[in-house]
Amino acid sequence: MNELLDGVDTPVSPEWLKPDGTIIPESAPENIRNLVAAKKWDNVTQAFDGYGELEKFTGLSEADRSKRILMIPSKEDDVEGWEKVYSKLRPTKPEEYKYENNKSGYEIPEDLLDLYKQDSFKRGQSQKQFEGNLDFLVAAASEGDRIAAEAQAEADKAAENVEIERQNKNRERLEQKWGKDKLAEKLTASNKVARDLGIYDVLVKKGLGSDIEVLEMLEAISSKTGEDTIPNDPQSPTKSATMERDNLAASEAYSSKFHKDHKASVRRMFELSQIIAREKAEANRPK
After folding, report:
1. Least enclosed by CB within 10 Å: which of 4, 143, 171, 271?
2. In this structure, are residues 266 and 213 in contact, taking their beta carbons and an 8 Å threshold?
3. 2 burial level (CB within 10 Å; 0-12, 13-18, 19+)
């Protein structure tokens, strides 16, 4: 006798689907295999869950859907389309960008920061992009300052070494001319003459305090003052000597060794200094 169920077909699962719902991609039809791969599904339950989410989304109003979906424009010149994208990513106005995590300590001028905020807003940058780009720029600027400072320090050191070498050579030359045992005495006398004539600060400021020609000139003035044999200059009134000396000391011809009139200006300074020294000697002579 046949059972009643003998005539009923038993459901059979697809060969690409295990009884527990696990998907076997390599056994599935091409259309299903491609969909599973694209969605990264491994269980049929995920397919139902995805369909449920789609049903929820399609059931939303257009306004609600626009809040949850971001459409990327297909053309770069789609200004309106890109503006909609940017409005989802960036602050509502440039002033809302914040930069409070400046770890380098590099100070950014306010006007420059405002310009960068405006540019970031125009480009549609998010707050995180704004901070990241500024971190990079600040780090680069800080590193540039460090390199420039090191280069300047090296240049200053090199210039200092050149100056030390120049002074040593001048000292050797003066030792040969005045004698090593007389050098300190004559330099002291030259220093005094420069201070008495009111040109010491000018000489130092112009970098001429160790100039060989200047030192020799001051020593000569000191010697002649002591001997009281400093001649007056009939062509230059003594009352204007101090003014002419000050103007000459401030001139490029006197301070620059490479100026075409440098030697002539040094010679004239010597003459003016003699005139002024003579005036002082006359004024201090006992009556």
Report:
1. 4
2. yes
3. exposed
What are 91-136's pLDDT values in tens digits?
888 898 888 766 666 778 888 889 989 998 888 888 888 888 888 8
In angstroms, the Cα distances linking 200 to 106, 178, 190 are 41, 21, 10
Chain centroid to CA 245: 42
With contact defined as beta carbons under 8 Å apart, do 106 and 141 qualify?
yes
Residue 100 identity: E
Q: Running DSSP on this structure, what letter comes out for residue 22?
A: B
Q: Residues 257-286: pLDDT tens digits?
A: 777 887 788 778 777 877 777 777 666 666
> What distance lies between CA 162 and its chain's CA centroid?
28
97 and 126 in contact (C-beta within 8 Å)? no
CB 99 within 8 Å of CB 134: yes
- For tokens 């780009």, what's the residue? 133
For 267: left if phi > 0, alpha if psi spans -120 to 50, otherwise beta; the answer is alpha
Q: Which residues pair with 43 in a beta bridge?
A: 22
With tokens 């059972």, the residue in question is 3
